Amino acid sequence: MKISHLSIENFRGIRNASVLLPDHAVLIGDNNVGKSTILEALDLVMGPDRLSRQSPIDEHDFHLGQYLANEASPNGPAPHITIGAIVTGLSEEQQIHFRDYIEWWDTSKQQLSDVSAPAELDSSPTIPALRVSFIGRYDPNEDDFEGRTYFARTLEEDETPAHFSKPDKQKCGFLYLRPLRTGGRALSLERGSLLDIILRLKEIRPKMWEATLSELSTFDVAGDPELGISGVLGSIDRALKKYVPREWGIQPHLRVSALTRRHLREVITAFIDTGAGSYSAPYFRQGTGTINLLLLAMLSQIAEDRQNVIFAMEEPETAIPPYAQKRIVHELRKLSAQTLFTSHSPYVLEEFAIEETVVLTRTKR
């Protein structure tokens, strides 16, 4: 599976853009030209975890921050963010899953084909394709932003468009990695973390939650009178008895049992030896280069366990030596169906042919 074409309207610094993407590509250009914006747009339309946010977009995601109707024509349509992706290279399983929404991509013209008869399809260089669109807008009734992804055909043909849901997106295998941000929770058990993704790919469900919560419920915090806190709590207990029935609010004490499974996912993390003696520290307190190499080692694990993955990554060279940069790009290209990088590193650029290099420029209108 690969993303062959991306269109963007009214998203961040991009008023309008259309990009054809090869199997593997590196996006290059000046700072603030839109490289990261393109990857963020891909995450909105293809990423399964983005929809989990209460609102996947906000004011700053609209071009020039304009999300209200034009004052000159207040009854006109309000600005929308529209991001469209055409996905090709569908596996047999994916074609069966998306069979009601399959369209056709002309590989010679690099555009959607309008042929429909079987004879025409057999005689033309067309392949199955899936067209999806993210639509984001401001809802004045709710005074909030909303965004959903749809099968694009249904936006045009059906009265009620069909949603391109999280399970549908998971079928596509898109992963957007931002080392400086993703690395901070890679080895945690938070939903969407790399360790969580690997566990789900291996169909492993952590079973320690109930036992951990039960053990924590019996853990008495600062119960020793010599620590002084229990004396204060005893005073509170005596004061409470003056105002409430005896069986209410008695014996206040400190525990950590208010933690839930969600809290545990947020606070449990891996510790790694620092290399300076026997002391271990949370992995996210390691050096930036170590974190990024750890992150990329986990990426290769995901690519090995799950076929047909699309990786999008910002600047894999950050705090990583040249030989490791080249190894990262080489390995991910080999393991995944499509890789999309942004980079300024000559060592990364050397791994891509001219036709795989997408040069971005900005045109003012």
Description:
By secondary structure, the chain is of the alpha/beta class. The chain has helices spanning 35-46, 92-97, 118-123, 152-157, 166-172, 179-182, 194-201, 209-217, 229-240, 261-267, 288-305, 322-335, 346-349; strands at residues 2-11, 14-20, 24-28, 81-88, 102-106, 111-112, 126-139, 144-151, 174-177, 271-273, 280-282, 310-314, 338-342, 357-359. Strands 1, 2, 4, 5, 6, 7 and 8 form a seven-stranded antiparallel sheet that branches. A hairpin with a 4-residue loop joins β5 (102-106) and β6. α7 (194-201) packs parallel to α11 and α11 packs parallel to α12 (322-335). The chain is globular and about 85 Å long.
Give the arrangement of secondary structure elements:
Elements lengths: L1 E10 L2 E7 L3 E5 L6 H12 L34 E8 L3 H6 L4 E5 L4 E2 L5 H6 L2 E14 L4 E8 H6 L8 H7 L1 E4 L1 H4 L11 H8 L7 H9 L11 H12 L20 H7 L3 E3 L6 E3 L5 H18 L4 E5 L7 H14 L2 E5 L3 H4 L7 E3 L6
Parallel strand pairs: 3-13, 3-14, 9-12, 12-13
Antiparallel strand pairs: 1-2, 1-4, 4-7, 5-6, 5-7, 7-8, 10-11
Helix pairs in contact: 7-11, 11-12
